[in-house]
Amino acid sequence: MIATRAPTSRPEPLIPEPLWRAQLYVWSALALIYLGWLLVFWPGVLGEDSAAILMEVDQPDAFRSGKSVVWYFLVRMAYGLTHQVEWAVGLAMLLCAFFLARPLAWFWCARRRILFGFLFVFVAAAPHMVYFAGSLYPDALFAAASTALLFEIGLMLRQRNARWSSVAFIAIAMPFALFVRPNGVLFLLPLLVSLFFVPKAMRVPLAAAIGFWCVLVAGVTQWHKSTSQDALDSLVLFETAHLLQPRAMNDLWQQMPDMNDPWILRAPKLSPRTMEILLAHTTREKIVAYSDPVYWDMLIFHPEGPQLGAIPMAQRKELTREFLRYNLWHNLPEVVASRVNVFLSAALAQGGFPALDYAKVVLPRTNATSQMRRFALDKAERALRFMHKTSYRARWLLWTPFVGIALIGWCLWRGVQQRDAAALVVAGAAAIQLLAIVAFASAGEYRYLLPFFTLPLALGPLLATRAQRESVAKVTRGAVHHNAL
Fold first, then answer.
1. Is the dihedral of CA 143, 455, 427, 149 positive or negative?
2. N or C: which end of the chain has fewer CB within 10 A?
3. CA-CA distances (angstroms) from residue 195 to 153, 198, 208?
4. CA 86 to CA 371: how far, in whole Å?
């Protein structure tokens, strides 16, 4: 039999080269879009959280914003030296563009041009993504950095290798993905797992980068104490106040003539100690009046509200114990329904967003010298306002985080079916993040789910490279069979 040459297939590299050059081009394109938006809406969109971080930079010894120490020092570095807000907004926007450019460059270099164009237009340069990046909130930066981090970890695990460029990029993204928001520390888990999959030559620099940022942030946190809210404490205050809402059927039930029937359990909704702590601080009527189904802000921050955050810490710990011991389990259907309500309110973008010109309310409360609409680009502003308004009206479709959430489920299913460690680690970390938000979020804010809107940039390459590996494996098996014949 005459031997014939087996068919060959040259697989595309998992991290195409030169990726950094393509990333530079994509970053430049995104930077033009982002900074062009900033020129129009100078000095950026500012909300109440923006005012808080600016006031902390202005008065670091007298005011605490409750934001992470990494976000504080980023704003302090950009705004504190100049007292011009646009420097902080511009820096955050450039960082967002830099992190999003990395996975986008992969799609371009891997010759997946349709996906590249779609993700560029409808994710990275989407009107609301640019809006959040320019709002002086840490959420867009966290979404971009965490997506880029998961993208790099996923491909690193897929090829069981790491390049110096990957380690360098992870080192840059790490502080913003892990520490710019308190829940980002959950992404430390896939980083630690990745240490077991890379060669020893890359394990040391990667471990050094992880250790450096963890030690540095821990040390800086001791120097500048953050007053960020504890997730469980916030949940307890929010849900406890929610359970105080009157229920018509409950009131009717309590008025029934068989009140003294020993066979009927008449347990209170909240434990006696819970009511004792709350009523010693304020009235039930005030808590009910300032309670919102999907926001806890009025309970804590409104000057005329119950200000539950002022309850002494020892008593708040008692409230947590009472909640975990009695209030949660006795009202489990209501608490679960509240968790679903808060999550859907965030996922469907039902919450409020800072107005595009709210900066004029914030700037007088700070030491900022920024000038509103410095360049007076009125025609461009009208056009961008129209785009933003159009995008907002279709937000259930154009802003949806459910695509990223569905990809998490797909990756987990394929990871289990095919024993794909890369998919399991990356999608598993994203799933834990999602469960944490569902379980502990005390406000139905869309920006908390922004990482799941950008997540297709990280999970898309994982699914694509898995399909590529399967295709190559089929070709290889076919070649072996051909040679055998």
1. negative
2. N
3. 10, 6, 11
4. 9
- The answer to whether the beta carbons of residues 140 and 47 sit under 8 Å apart is no
CA 374/CA 378 separation, integer angstroms = 11
Nearest to 101 by CA among 190, 27, 169: 27
Asked if residue 298 lies in contact with residue 291, where contact means CB atoms within 8 angstroms, the answer is: yes
In the numeric block, the tokens 């031997």 are attached to 3
- Per-residue burial over 56-95, b if 16 or more Cβ lie within 10 Å, else e, is bbbeeeeebbbbbbbbbbbbbebbbeeebbbbbbbbbbbb
Name the token pair of 112. 């997946």
Cα–Cα distance measured from residue 246 to residue 436, given in angstroms and rounded to the nearest whole number: 29
Q: Could you tell me the pTM of the whole model?
A: 0.90
Rounded CA-CA distance 407/190 in Å is 17
- Written as tens digits, the pLDDT of the chain (485 aa) is 344 444 444 444 455 557 889 999 999 999 999 999 999 999 999 999 999 999 999 998 888 888 899 999 999 999 998 999 999 999 999 999 999 999 999 999 999 999 999 999 999 999 999 999 999 999 999 999 999 999 999 999 998 888 898 999 999 999 999 999 999 999 999 999 999 999 988 999 999 999 999 999 999 988 887 777 788 999 999 999 999 988 766 654 454 555 555 444 557 889 999 999 999 999 999 999 999 999 988 999 888 999 998 999 999 999 999 999 999 998 999 999 999 999 999 999 987 789 999 999 999 999 999 999 999 999 999 999 999 999 999 999 999 999 999 999 999 999 999 999 999 999 999 999 999 999 999 999 999 999 999 999 999 999 987 655 554 444 344 433 434 44
In single-letter form, the type of residue at position 383 comes to A
- In sign, the C-alpha dihedral spanning 261, 262, 264, 267 is positive
Structural contact between residues 96 and 137, judged by C-beta atoms closer than 8 angstroms:
no
Q: How far is residue 184's CA from residue 139's CA, in Å, rounded to a whole number? A: 11
Residues 6 or more apart whose Cβ sits within 8 Å of residue 292: 298
Q: How far is Cα 46 from Cα 138, in angstroms, rounded to an integer?
A: 12
Cβ neighbors of 381 (< 8 A, separation 6 or more) are: 40, 41, 373
CB-based contact 193:155 (threshold 8 Å): no
Q: Please check whether residue 418 is in contact with residue 451, taking contact to mean a CB–CB distance below 8 angstroms.
A: no
